[in-house]
Amino acid sequence: MDIIIKEFIKGAREAQGVTVIIDVFRAFSTACYAFDNGIKRLIDVATPAEAIALKDKLKADAIIAGEQDEKKPDGFDLGNSPTEMLTGHIEGKTMIHCTTAGTRGILNASGASEILGAGLVNAGAVVSYISRLNPEKVTLVAMGYRGQESAEEDLLCARYIRELLKGNETDISAEITALRSGSGSRFFKPENLFFSPPTDFFLCTELNRFSFALRAVITASGYAEIIRVDMSN
Fold it and tell me: How many domains is the chain built from?
Protein backbone atom coordinates (compact mmCIF):
# COMPACT_ATOMS: atom_id res chain seq x y z
CA MET A 1 0.00 0.00 0.00
CA ASP A 2 1.49 3.33 -1.12
CA ILE A 3 0.66 6.00 1.50
CA ILE A 4 1.31 9.68 0.82
CA ILE A 5 0.75 12.67 3.14
CA LYS A 6 -0.20 16.00 1.58
CA GLU A 7 -1.56 19.29 2.92
CA PHE A 8 -4.16 21.97 2.26
CA ILE A 9 -6.64 22.41 -0.60
CA LYS A 10 -3.76 21.89 -3.03
CA GLY A 11 -3.14 18.49 -1.48
CA ALA A 12 -6.81 17.58 -1.77
CA ARG A 13 -6.78 18.49 -5.46
CA GLU A 14 -3.68 16.39 -6.03
CA ALA A 15 -4.90 13.40 -4.03
CA GLN A 16 -5.27 10.02 -5.69
CA GLY A 17 -6.61 6.67 -4.57
CA VAL A 18 -8.46 6.37 -1.29
CA THR A 19 -8.22 9.87 0.13
CA VAL A 20 -8.56 10.86 3.77
CA ILE A 21 -9.30 14.53 4.42
CA ILE A 22 -8.09 15.27 7.95
CA ASP A 23 -9.40 18.17 10.03
CA VAL A 24 -9.03 17.54 13.77
CA PHE A 25 -9.80 21.12 14.92
CA ARG A 26 -12.69 20.87 14.16
CA ALA A 27 -14.65 19.84 11.06
CA PHE A 28 -14.63 16.06 11.21
CA SER A 29 -14.62 15.93 14.98
CA THR A 30 -17.80 18.03 14.83
CA ALA A 31 -19.25 15.70 12.20
CA CYS A 32 -18.59 12.64 14.35
CA TYR A 33 -20.23 14.18 17.40
CA ALA A 34 -23.18 15.25 15.26
CA PHE A 35 -23.78 11.70 14.04
CA ASP A 36 -23.33 10.33 17.54
CA ASN A 37 -25.94 12.75 18.82
CA GLY A 38 -28.64 11.88 16.37
CA ILE A 39 -28.50 13.78 13.10
CA LYS A 40 -30.17 11.81 10.32
CA ARG A 41 -28.22 13.29 7.42
CA LEU A 42 -25.03 15.32 6.88
CA ILE A 43 -24.27 17.36 3.78
CA ASP A 44 -20.96 19.19 3.19
CA VAL A 45 -20.91 22.38 1.12
CA ALA A 46 -18.13 24.77 0.16
CA THR A 47 -19.51 28.23 0.98
CA PRO A 48 -21.92 29.89 3.43
CA ALA A 49 -24.06 31.08 0.51
CA GLU A 50 -24.48 27.49 -0.68
CA ALA A 51 -25.35 26.40 2.84
CA ILE A 52 -28.07 29.02 3.23
CA ALA A 53 -29.52 28.29 -0.21
CA LEU A 54 -29.61 24.56 0.51
CA LYS A 55 -31.33 25.12 3.85
CA ASP A 56 -33.99 27.19 2.09
CA LYS A 57 -34.51 24.32 -0.34
CA LEU A 58 -34.67 21.59 2.32
CA LYS A 59 -36.88 23.67 4.64
CA ALA A 60 -37.91 22.69 8.15
CA ASP A 61 -35.69 19.80 9.14
CA ALA A 62 -32.41 21.40 8.04
CA ILE A 63 -29.88 23.25 10.18
CA ILE A 64 -26.57 24.82 9.20
CA ALA A 65 -23.41 24.33 11.25
CA GLY A 66 -19.92 25.55 10.56
CA GLU A 67 -17.49 28.42 10.50
CA GLN A 68 -15.53 30.80 8.36
CA ASP A 69 -12.24 31.86 9.93
CA GLU A 70 -13.36 29.95 13.06
CA LYS A 71 -16.50 32.00 13.72
CA LYS A 72 -20.13 31.10 13.02
CA PRO A 73 -21.33 33.04 9.94
CA ASP A 74 -24.56 35.04 9.89
CA GLY A 75 -27.50 32.79 9.14
CA PHE A 76 -25.93 29.64 10.62
CA ASP A 77 -27.68 27.80 13.43
CA LEU A 78 -24.59 26.34 15.08
CA GLY A 79 -20.85 26.81 14.96
CA ASN A 80 -18.25 24.24 13.96
CA SER A 81 -18.12 23.00 17.52
CA PRO A 82 -18.31 19.50 19.03
CA THR A 83 -19.55 21.15 22.21
CA GLU A 84 -22.52 22.57 20.33
CA MET A 85 -23.26 19.13 18.87
CA LEU A 86 -23.66 17.89 22.45
CA THR A 87 -25.75 20.82 23.66
CA GLY A 88 -27.78 21.79 20.56
CA HIS A 89 -31.07 20.33 19.39
CA ILE A 90 -29.86 18.30 16.42
CA GLU A 91 -31.53 14.91 16.74
CA GLY A 92 -33.43 13.93 13.60
CA LYS A 93 -32.14 16.95 11.67
CA THR A 94 -30.36 17.26 8.35
CA MET A 95 -27.16 19.14 9.09
CA ILE A 96 -25.57 21.23 6.36
CA HIS A 97 -21.88 21.65 7.21
CA CYS A 98 -19.59 24.35 5.86
CA THR A 99 -16.07 25.08 7.09
CA THR A 100 -12.99 26.97 6.00
CA ALA A 101 -10.84 23.87 5.50
CA GLY A 102 -12.44 20.46 6.08
CA THR A 103 -15.57 20.54 3.95
CA ARG A 104 -13.71 22.32 1.15
CA GLY A 105 -11.07 19.62 1.25
CA ILE A 106 -13.76 16.98 0.72
CA LEU A 107 -15.20 18.86 -2.23
CA ASN A 108 -11.82 19.43 -3.87
CA ALA A 109 -10.68 15.79 -3.84
CA SER A 110 -11.83 15.25 -7.41
CA GLY A 111 -9.11 12.73 -8.26
CA ALA A 112 -9.86 10.40 -5.37
CA SER A 113 -11.34 6.94 -5.87
CA GLU A 114 -12.99 7.25 -2.47
CA ILE A 115 -13.10 10.09 0.07
CA LEU A 116 -13.14 9.85 3.86
CA GLY A 117 -13.23 12.48 6.59
CA ALA A 118 -11.11 11.95 9.69
CA GLY A 119 -10.02 13.35 13.00
CA LEU A 120 -8.34 11.82 16.00
CA VAL A 121 -11.76 10.81 17.32
CA ASN A 122 -12.36 8.29 14.51
CA ALA A 123 -8.86 7.63 13.15
CA GLY A 124 -8.87 3.96 14.11
CA ALA A 125 -12.19 3.37 12.37
CA VAL A 126 -10.83 5.03 9.23
CA VAL A 127 -7.86 2.66 9.34
CA SER A 128 -10.21 -0.33 9.67
CA TYR A 129 -12.26 0.88 6.70
CA ILE A 130 -9.21 1.38 4.48
CA SER A 131 -7.73 -1.94 5.55
CA ARG A 132 -10.87 -3.71 4.36
CA LEU A 133 -10.51 -2.04 0.97
CA ASN A 134 -6.77 -2.80 0.79
CA PRO A 135 -6.16 -0.18 -1.92
CA GLU A 136 -2.91 0.28 -3.80
CA LYS A 137 -2.76 4.02 -3.06
CA VAL A 138 -3.85 6.11 -0.06
CA THR A 139 -3.52 9.90 0.21
CA LEU A 140 -3.77 11.49 3.65
CA VAL A 141 -4.49 15.22 3.40
CA ALA A 142 -3.80 17.30 6.51
CA MET A 143 -5.94 20.37 5.89
CA GLY A 144 -4.13 22.64 8.33
CA TYR A 145 -5.16 25.80 10.13
CA ARG A 146 -7.72 27.60 7.95
CA GLY A 147 -6.48 25.44 5.09
CA GLN A 148 -3.36 27.59 4.79
CA GLU A 149 -0.91 26.79 7.59
CA SER A 150 0.45 23.43 8.71
CA ALA A 151 -1.36 22.23 11.82
CA GLU A 152 0.30 19.95 14.36
CA GLU A 153 -2.91 18.08 15.10
CA ASP A 154 -3.70 17.24 11.47
CA LEU A 155 -0.17 16.07 10.70
CA LEU A 156 -0.16 14.02 13.90
CA CYS A 157 -3.41 12.36 12.85
CA ALA A 158 -2.03 11.70 9.36
CA ARG A 159 1.12 10.06 10.72
CA TYR A 160 -0.94 8.01 13.19
CA ILE A 161 -3.19 6.70 10.41
CA ARG A 162 -0.18 5.96 8.21
CA GLU A 163 1.57 3.95 10.91
CA LEU A 164 -1.54 1.93 11.72
CA LEU A 165 -2.06 1.17 8.04
CA LYS A 166 1.53 -0.13 7.96
CA GLY A 167 0.72 -2.39 10.91
CA ASN A 168 2.70 -0.37 13.43
CA GLU A 169 1.04 0.17 16.80
CA THR A 170 1.89 3.66 18.01
CA ASP A 171 1.32 5.60 21.21
CA ILE A 172 0.62 9.26 20.50
CA SER A 173 -0.71 10.18 23.94
CA ALA A 174 2.26 12.46 24.69
CA GLU A 175 1.86 14.25 21.35
CA ILE A 176 -1.85 14.74 21.99
CA THR A 177 -1.10 16.20 25.43
CA ALA A 178 1.46 18.54 23.87
CA LEU A 179 -1.24 20.00 21.58
CA ARG A 180 -2.67 21.71 24.69
CA SER A 181 0.26 24.15 24.73
CA GLY A 182 0.80 24.06 20.96
CA SER A 183 -1.78 24.40 18.21
CA GLY A 184 -4.61 23.75 20.66
CA SER A 185 -3.71 26.70 22.88
CA ARG A 186 -6.11 28.92 20.97
CA PHE A 187 -9.05 27.14 22.60
CA PHE A 188 -7.98 28.56 25.94
CA LYS A 189 -7.60 32.21 24.94
CA PRO A 190 -10.26 34.41 26.55
CA GLU A 191 -11.05 36.19 23.29
CA ASN A 192 -11.94 32.86 21.63
CA LEU A 193 -14.17 31.37 24.32
CA PHE A 194 -17.48 32.35 22.72
CA PHE A 195 -16.92 30.52 19.43
CA SER A 196 -14.09 28.11 20.27
CA PRO A 197 -14.54 26.84 23.85
CA PRO A 198 -11.94 24.81 25.79
CA THR A 199 -14.28 21.82 25.80
CA ASP A 200 -13.81 21.59 22.02
CA PHE A 201 -10.12 20.89 22.54
CA PHE A 202 -10.79 17.95 24.82
CA LEU A 203 -13.60 16.57 22.67
CA CYS A 204 -11.48 16.77 19.51
CA THR A 205 -8.54 14.95 21.11
CA GLU A 206 -10.42 11.91 22.47
CA LEU A 207 -8.50 9.38 20.43
CA ASN A 208 -10.68 6.71 18.80
CA ARG A 209 -13.81 7.69 20.70
CA PHE A 210 -15.96 6.69 17.70
CA SER A 211 -15.98 3.39 15.84
CA PHE A 212 -17.31 4.72 12.55
CA ALA A 213 -15.79 6.17 9.41
CA LEU A 214 -17.16 9.14 7.46
CA ARG A 215 -17.48 8.38 3.75
CA ALA A 216 -18.14 11.27 1.36
CA VAL A 217 -20.13 10.86 -1.84
CA ILE A 218 -20.09 13.83 -4.20
CA THR A 219 -23.54 14.46 -5.66
CA ALA A 220 -24.58 15.79 -9.06
CA SER A 221 -25.43 19.06 -7.32
CA GLY A 222 -21.84 19.50 -6.21
CA TYR A 223 -22.45 18.81 -2.53
CA ALA A 224 -21.07 15.90 -0.54
CA GLU A 225 -23.32 13.46 1.26
CA ILE A 226 -21.47 12.20 4.32
CA ILE A 227 -22.30 8.62 5.20
CA ARG A 228 -21.62 7.07 8.59
CA VAL A 229 -20.02 3.62 8.18
CA ASP A 230 -19.93 1.67 11.43
CA MET A 231 -16.84 -0.49 11.82
CA SER A 232 -17.66 -2.25 15.08
CA ASN A 233 -18.69 -5.49 13.37
Answer: 1
